[in-house]
Specification:
The structure holds two protein chains of two kinds. Chain A is an all-alpha fold. Chain A has helices spanning 17-44, 48-55, 58-91, 97-103, 106-109, 112-122, 130-133, 144-169, 172-180, 185-214, 217-222, 233-242, 246-282. Chain B is globular and about 65 Å long. Classes of the chains: A mainly alpha, B mainly alpha.
Chain lengths: 283, 283
């Protein structure tokens, strides 16, 4: 749709549209889109029976259950503590606040393999934290609980970083107004502040959940990777690959990709909702 | 207006305890474990030829993927921020795709294309070209997982800056390249640097995707994170932590640089690593 032909649109002053868009589409197709299509094309060579045998096998079902369950609870814990961390960072001042703020991003900056061996060592029976829990009969490393700990670690920044900016933009006059109308501090939080945070909180939750579902590096060390017990979906895909079962690995990858796309869609809808919410508030 | 002091102290206490448990203790323990057998062993591990070859390969993979994704990021941001075209939102979502895909699947897609049983497998074998279980596969996987970093920093930045300055330069007689180098680049330099820092951290630390395509050949296809895994699994935990301490140091440098750039350009604060969809960010 060249702009010059239509009289109503203005002539482009800036050059490079075709060059940059062309390169963008070429590079995107080459690196991302065509390789991703390979997953779907490879899967389409399987018959439905073969496909369903792989993706609904007892081992796969157990892996989905564990992946979804551990990711959900990890995101939930992060939602609660992430909200508190974001609140404290925005509202209060205390010694070392800037340091704590910068440290929130550590799980993104720290390579997952390092996180994996560190958590596995800390929570092992003789580790710094593990030896405190062992007398209580709590085993973390090489159990489902260990997977939960690793997924909590890698999801930590998401909720803090999505809630923080919304809390910073929150208009204190709304709180003053509620207070002058006789609301208690607790009522102000639940009825005035919390509802504005909800879309951001849900976005952060969805992002942390999505990240946890796909996580591999930090889990592989702390999980004993026993089928049906401590094997999450990415570990199952990896063990199929190690056995050169490419078709099986690919079928499982398709299931994961569809779930990721649905979550991506959910995040987009949440963002749209939160934007609308914020615009309504301003109006 | 504010909470009573004991509530405030309680919340700060909870936040700090959570951060200490999940971030500070693991961070300290990396260095403590690394130095468990003294400085002699520590430096001996770092000087080991296998460690050095892993460092070289990691530098190579980052040295190729970061500049390529930089060029892509600038091109994509130019096309998206300076021009109007249909399908822009779809393009934004597609650029973000690699973030929502499990690292294991990011490696798998290249195995399906270039592996021995893949699309180009037989042709590559005939021509004696190795991509999977070789260096090119590692570079490709690294490019894939770091694909969106620069683009997603530059797109919102350039959208916010608009096109007035570039249009003025053009009208005053500057060529397209002059406009780009003298107007656009100075305007986006902090955003570009920011994207490069985050992109580099991920490129050097990637584990899952690289693990699928590497084949783990010591001295040949081992990156630093893969070397950490090999040392850890061969019961050389102290050695693994010694090499991991390099990556931890890199993570800390990344956080310091990131905080410094945010300090220089406050517009960059917020969703640094957190992949909130770019197109939907609140303005």
């Amino acid at each position: 749709m060249p702009t010059r032909k239509t009289g109503t649109k203005k002539i482009r002053v800036l050059p490079g549209f075709r060059l940059t868009l062309g390169f963008t589409l070429f590079y995107l197709s080459l690196i991302v889109l065509i390789p991703l299509m390979a997953v779907f094309i490879k899967t389409s060579t399987l018959s439905w029976a073969q496909f369903s045998q792989t993706v609904f096998s007892p081992q796969a079902l157990a892996a989905y259950r564990l992946s979804f369950g551990a990711s959900f609870f990890a995101a939930l814990i992060n939602a609660v503590f992430g909200l508190i961390v974001a609140w404290v960072l925005v509202r209060y001042s205390f010694f070392g606040k800037k340091f704590v703020d910068a440290l929130v991003d550590l799980p993104f900056a720290l390579p997952t393999a390092v996180a994996g061996i560190t958590l596995a060592t800390l929570y092992a029976q003789n580790g710094w934290i593990g030896h405190l829990l062992a007398p209580l009969g709590i085993k973390v490393a090489y159990t489902q609980l260990g997977i939960f700990v690793a997924l909590t670690f890698i999801g930590l920044p998401f909720i803090v970083r999505t809630v923080q900016p919304v809390l910073e933009d929150f208009d204190p006059e709304l709180e003053d107004a509620a207070a002058s109308l006789g609301a208690s501090r607790w009522q102000i939080f639940w009825r005035v502040i919390f509802p504005t945070l909800t879309p951001a909180l849900l976005t952060g939750f969805a992002l942390a959940f999505a990240r946890a579902l796909g996580e591999y590096g930090s889990v592989v060390f702390i999980s004993s990777n026993i089928p049906m017990k401590t094997q999450i979906v990415p570990l199952l895909i990896m063990s199929e690959l190690d056995g050169f079962q490419y078709a099986k690995a690919t079928a499982l990858a398709v299931v994961m990709l569809v779930v990721s796309f649905l979550l991506l869609l959910a995040v987009n809808v949440l963002q749209w909702w939160s934007n609308r919410y914020n615009t309504n508030n301003l109006a | 207006m504010a909470e009573p002091p004991f509530v405030r102290r309680l919340l700060i206490g909870i936040a700090l305890a959570f951060m200490a448990l999940f971030l500070v203790i693991p961070l300290v323990s990396v260095f403590a474990e690394a130095l468990k057998q003294g400085f002699g062993f520590y430096f001996q591990t770092l000087r080991d030829p296998l460690t050095l070859s892993a460092i070289k390969l990691t530098l190579l993979a980052a040295g190729i993927s970061v500049p390529l994704n930089c060029v892509f990021g600038v091109a994509a941001a130019w096309a998206i921020a300076k021009f109007d075209f249909r399908g822009k939102n779809i393009l934004l979502t597609l650029i973000d795709l690699p973030f929502s895909i499990s690292p294991v699947i990011s490696g798998l897609i290249y195995v399906l294309i270039f592996g021995a049983q893949g699309w180009f497998g037989p042709w590559l074998i005939d021509h004696n070209i190795r991509i999977i279980f070789a260096v090119p596969g590692i570079v490709l996987a690294t490019i894939f997982v770091t694909f969106p970093f620069v683009a997603r920093e530059l797109i919102p930045l350039m959208q916010a800056q608009g096109r007035n300055e570039e249009e003025a330069a053009r009208v005053l007689g500057a060529s397209g390249w002059q406009t780009f180098w003298r107007v656009t680049i100075p305007n986006i330099k902090w955003g570009l640097l920011y994207g490069v820092i985050l992109c580099n951290a991920r490129a050097m630390g990637e584990f899952g995707a690289v693990s699928v395509v590497s084949g783990h050949i010591q001295g040949l296809t081992n990156t630093i994170p893969l070397h950490v895994q090999i040392l850890y699994e061969s019961n050389n935990s102290t050695g693994a932590f010694a090499v991991a301490s390099l990556l931890t140091f890199l993570a800390l440098v990344t956080l310091v640089l990131k905080t410094w750039v945010e300090h220089k350009n406050t517009a960059l604060r917020g969703t640094a690593f957190t992949p909130v969809p770019v197109g939907n960010k609140t303005a």
